[in-house]
Amino acid sequence: MVTEHLKIVEQNIARACEQSGRNRKEVTLIAVSKTKPVEMMEEAMAAGIRTFGENKVQEILKKKPLLPDDINWHMIGHLQRNKVRQIAGNVSMIHSVDSLRLAEQIQKEYEAIGKMADVLIEVNIAREETKFGLMPEETETVIRETAKMSHLNVRGLMTIAPYVDDPEENRIHFRNLRKLLVDINGKNIDNISMTELSMGMTGDYEIAIEEGATFVRVGTGIFGSRQYAK
Ligand SMILES: *Cc1c(COP(=O)(O)O)cnc(C)c1O
After folding, report:
1. pLDDT digits over 181-224, tens only?
2. How far is the CA of 112 from the centre of ligand 1 (A)?
3. Which terminal residue of the chain has fewer beta carbons within 10 Å of its beta carbon, N or C?
4. If you take atom 6 of ligand 1, which residue's CA is the nearest one?
């Protein structure tokens, strides 16, 4: 099932790239494997996937030793400050920096292990009350502060778009996130030159690619629906 699903997702990504004049290599597919067993992840690996997204620190730490070392793990879920120490050095990228205090904690823990943290700043671009992420107008200020941190590399912006029936409704949010990135890059802040846009999930990744996504995070579309233990 995973192999078949991936084939379809890959075709959709290729088409979206083609339609928007982009090179397929500019877009990384993150297979969101949260709640799914390593056996399904191995099936995805056999089909060429090397980048997995998880939203829980414990799940990453549990699965990581069971899979090869060349896998890129991306932390895409809300990160509590008291979990940063456990995740430091164990992921390729943290997509969910949603406060200055979290950025400070990441700086502290990565300095302690002598490594650089590649991070994205999470923006609540659609201003939903229920969502994590900085408001668009707060983003520049937080980035100016993180720019001074010696062990933090701000690589770009991330957003979780609203849940909608028609993915076209989210185009404006993806476009606005890209505008925000271009706008902040234009301020020529020392150490800040952002290239990554993490946006688009199963329902809307093609639209996100058309609007400039460099990472799409696809879970259900690859692994099927998730069942959470009660
Ligand atoms: C679960 C999750 C996804 C994947 O969602 P699907 O709709 O299953 O593709 C993407 N991004 C984040 C942050 C998630 O938590």
Report:
1. 999 999 999 999 999 999 999 999 999 999 999 999 999 999 99
2. 31
3. C
4. 219
Q: Is 61 exposed, middle or buried (0-12, 13-18, 19+ CB in 10 A)?
A: middle
Measured between alpha carbons, how far is 155 from 158 in angstroms, rounded to an integer?
10
DSSP per-residue letters across 116-148: PEEEEEEB-TT--TT--SB-HHHHHHHHHHHTT
72-117 confidence digits (pLDDT tens): 999 999 999 999 999 999 999 999 999 999 999 999 999 999 999 9
Provide the Cα torsion 21, 166, 222, 78; round to 10°: 100
